[in-house]
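G., the chain you wanted modeled:
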Amino acid sequence: MSDFLDVPGASGARYRFRRADLHALPATAGNLLVVSPRKSEPVIRLCVAADSLAQAAPAARDALKAHRGAVLYIRLNIARAVREAEHDDIAATATDDVFRQSA
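Predicted structure as tokens:
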């Protein structure tokens, strides 16, 4: 998978995430995805909105263990309203409750 991933929300907006290292997550706020590669379109396994991406590490670690070959992506956004709106837009495309989390 590439270093950047554009993810569509239910609204039609697209959000750009960058690949990240689980052990180097910043303490800043943002959104986090764990994504499994697939030929047609990647499968999002976890979507988290967090006040600190470092605090989301345990959920990300669990998702990465559960989905072998999955990749971690982050999107930095400091404003809580933006972070939550983007999370809700992306999560609205999912049917799995495990997919929707906040930290």
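The mean pLDDT is 89.

Shout if anything looks off.
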